[in-house]
């Protein structure tokens, strides 16, 4: 299989559409170039949902909620895509579980906060809840207003998504952050009763992240706190923003939350033919990733996080690291788990898998205190 024929882990053509409300108004001829680019980016979430359901259906992942975010029965992805979806999900789960493991699992009071950027149809909060990891957690998601509204419709229409003690709240005290619309989408989320007290533990914030740096304080958003150790997740989100805006988004949180960790998943390695072909294929869909041109290697990603002050500073703890999906598959996934996954379906394209997996990276960092993230030991080989 030539490099031009190898699919990528971000998106693929076709596939079922996201359930719920449409993501735009009018047909392509009525949209501005900027709106079309935004819709192209949003379409990658639909592709990710299809890939997630494929991996779940074949037994790679355990996610009973994936089915609700794909219309129809889904599409079976190629084995290298299923393995990539598994490894990507496992990498983030490992880092998130590390972040949560240092908190008190018994306490019902919030002691950790997660902020997921461009969350789309991600089901991670629901999975954490079913794993009983949510008791001391406040979970925030940010995405385009139309995406947040569509996700709410899906949750409302599929009651099994809700936990037994959860209910939906429709709006926030601010009515949502105006996003160039006189009638902004309201914030929404899930309520649960704890010892007779109603608590908001999952909150979805409808916002174009390009507007975030212009906002003044955390109080613009319902339930967002500065006093909790916080983990920001960018699973193929910041890569679609202009580099300066992506940097400012991270600085916005870093300047307001003293104890902060971050996990970033995005492509790297555009200096070889495969990387160049990957960029060209995405560009043919109207999808552009400014960060891939700046942060081309693992060392670039580490330097990026260090420049954002994810490092030891003035006696306060901190640090950063990065690994490719190939590294993570080889070093983070136990041998017995590899055997289980290999038994699900054959993977004949070993060289293609290696080529694909070394072009995606997970970078992580923390600052402001003790190590928030303690992943397995990884290779330090530069890419």
Automatic annotation (TrEMBL):
EC number: 2.1.1.233
Catalysed reaction equations from the record: [phosphatase 2A protein]-C-terminal L-leucine + S-adenosyl-L-methionine = [phosphatase 2A protein]-C-terminal L-leucine methyl ester + S-adenosyl-L-homocysteine
Annotated InterPro entries: LCMT1, Ppm1/Ppm2/Tcmp, SAM-dependent_MTases_sf
Top-level taxonomic group: Eukaryota
Segments of skewed composition (Polar residues): 30-46
Keyword S-adenosyl-L-methionine: yes
Region (Disordered): 1-46
Residues that bind S-adenosyl-L-methionine: 88, 118, 208-209, 235
Enzyme class, spelled out: transferase
MF GO annotations: protein C-terminal leucine carboxyl O-methyltransferase activity
Biological processes, Gene Ontology terms: methylation
Signal peptide: none
Keywords tagged on the record: Methyltransferase, S-adenosyl-L-methionine, Transferase
Family: Belongs to the methyltransferase superfamily. LCMT family.
Physiological role: Methylates the carboxyl group of the C-terminal leucine residue of protein phosphatase 2A catalytic subunits to form alpha-leucine ester residues.
Protein name: Leucine carboxyl methyltransferase 1
Organism: Amorphotheca resinae ATCC 22711
């Amino acid at each position: 299989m030539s490099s031009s024929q190898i699919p990528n882990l971000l998106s693929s053509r076709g596939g079922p559409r996201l359930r719920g409300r449409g993501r735009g108004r009018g047909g392509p001829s009525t949209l501005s170039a900027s709106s079309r680019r935004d819709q192209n980016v949003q379409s990658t979430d639909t592709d990710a949902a299809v890939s997630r359901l494929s991996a779940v259906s074949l037994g790679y992942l355990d996610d009973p909620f994936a089915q609700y975010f794909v219309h129809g029965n889904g599409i079976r992805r190629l084995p290298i895509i299923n393995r990539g979806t598994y490894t990507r999900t496992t990498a983030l789960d490992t880092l998130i579980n590390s972040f949560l493991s240092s908190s008190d699992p018994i306490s019902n009071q919030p002691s950790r906060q997660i902020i997921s950027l461009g969350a789309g149809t991600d089901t991670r909060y629901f999975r954490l809840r079913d794993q009983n990891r949510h008791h001391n957690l406040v979970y925030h998601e940010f995405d385009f207003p139309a995406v947040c509204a569509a996700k709410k419709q899906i949750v409302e229409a599929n009651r099994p998504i809700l936990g037994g003690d959860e209910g939906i709240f429709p709006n926030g005290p601010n009515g949502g952050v105006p996003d160039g619309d006189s009638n902004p989408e309201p914030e929404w989320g899930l309520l649960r009763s704890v010892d007779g007290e109603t608590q908001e533990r999952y909150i979805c914030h409808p916002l174009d992240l390009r507007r975030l740096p212009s906002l003044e304080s955390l109080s613009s958003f319902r339930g967002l706190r500065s006093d909790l150790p916080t983990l920001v997740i960018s699973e193929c989100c910041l890569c679609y923003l202009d580099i300066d805006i992506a940097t400012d988004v991270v600085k916005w949180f870093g300047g307001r939350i003293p104890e902060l960790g971050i996990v970033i998943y995005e492509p790297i390695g555009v200096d070889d033919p495969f990387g160049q072909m990957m960029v060209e294929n995405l560009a043919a869909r109207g999808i552009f990733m400014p960060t891939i041109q700046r942060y081309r290697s693992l060392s670039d990603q580490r330097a990026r996080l260090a420049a954002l002050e994810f490092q030891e500073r003035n006696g306060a703890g901190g640090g950063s690291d990065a690994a490719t999906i190939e590294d993570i598959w080889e070093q983070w996934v136990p041998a017995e788990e590899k055997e289980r996954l290999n038994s699900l379906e054959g993977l004949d394209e070993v060289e293609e898998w290696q080529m694909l997996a070394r072009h995606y990276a997970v970078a992580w960092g923390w600052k402001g205190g003790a190590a928030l993230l303690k992943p397995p030991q990884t290779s330090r080989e530069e890419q």
